Amino acid sequence: MTQTAQNISVGTKTIQVSEIFGPTIQGEGALIGKPTVFVRTGGCDYRCSWCDSLYAVLPEHKAEWHAMDTRQIFAEVERLSGHAPLLVTLSGGNPAIQPLEGLIDLGHEHGYTFAIETQGSVAQPWFAKLDYLTLSPKPPSSKQVTRWERLDRSILYATNARHTHEIQINLKIVIFDEDDYAYARYVAERYPAIPMYLQAGNHTPPQQAEEIDVSGILQRMDWLIQRTIADRWYGATVLPQLHTLLWGNKRGV
Ligand code: SF4
């Protein structure tokens, strides 16, 4: 993507960063298997019952986070990637609560592309600058409440950008049970034009870093595949969380 000098905004705003790591592969969703550097921000407006990244969510972990500006983050991305313009995945926590617009602008200047993973609870106009927007609204098992108007607005910001550049919008929902499945069906009906990725949830507590219940995850995935096929829901793509199968709940891989 090319950007004009006028719309580059490399500010000195402070961004809370939990960790920057990679290159590794994206383990889930539409970009599964793609090499990427992750920038995981600190802080989240949700408290999902099964969150596996509480170290990037809870204020009690704040002392482990780093307050960084755009240039410091980008310097680390460049160091890790060896200056190869890879995909950068903005994750969290909820990265949408951080001022990431300048990082996207700076990275684009150097040929990097940007994906964000967010639940869609905070809609930002700068979503329009992304190359990939993955929205992962949280189903009932998370014990969170979806604010639909915010999800609508997140999609609108990205959709409006399509007249200036290619931006791929995807939905991704973690499924644990029938209620989650019904929620995913509703989301797909609400946004029929957006590709939907479903993934079987990992029920192993995050403190069990390596001993996850792989057979339990695969059984749930099998159920999910049978469920979508029986419903003739052919618009859904069912995927595992590849990183979980490979590396369990380990951080930084
Ligand atoms: S939205 Fe994501 S990071 Fe935030 S609490 Fe839920 S699972 Fe954890």
Automatic annotation (TrEMBL):
Cofactor binding comment, as recorded: Binds 1 [4Fe-4S] cluster. The cluster is coordinated with 3 cysteines and an exchangeable S-adenosyl-L-methionine. Binds 1 S-adenosyl-L-methionine per subunit.
Gene3D superfamilies linked to this entry: Aldolase class I
Keywords for the protein's UniProt record, in alphabetical order: 4Fe-4S, Iron, Iron-sulfur, Lyase, Magnesium, Metal-binding, Queuosine biosynthesis, S-adenosyl-L-methionine
Protein name, as recorded: 7-carboxy-7-deazaguanine synthase
Record note on quaternary structure: Homodimer.
GO biological process, one term: tRNA queuosine(34) biosynthetic process
Annotated binding of [4Fe-4S] cluster, by residue: C44, C48, C51
InterPro entries, sorted: 7-CO-7-deazaguanine_synth-like (IPR024924), Aldolase_TIM (IPR013785), Deazaguanine_synth (IPR017742), rSAM (IPR007197), rSAM_sf (IPR058240)
Positions annotated to bind Mg(2+): S53
Top-rank taxon: Bacteria
Organism this protein belongs to: Dictyobacter aurantiacus
Enzymatic reactions: 6-carboxy-5,6,7,8-tetrahydropterin + H(+) = 7-carboxy-7-carbaguanine + NH4(+)
Cited PROSITE patterns: RADICAL_SAM
Gene this protein is translated from: exsE
Annotated HAMAP family: QueE (MF_00917)
Residues in Radical SAM core domain copies: 31-249
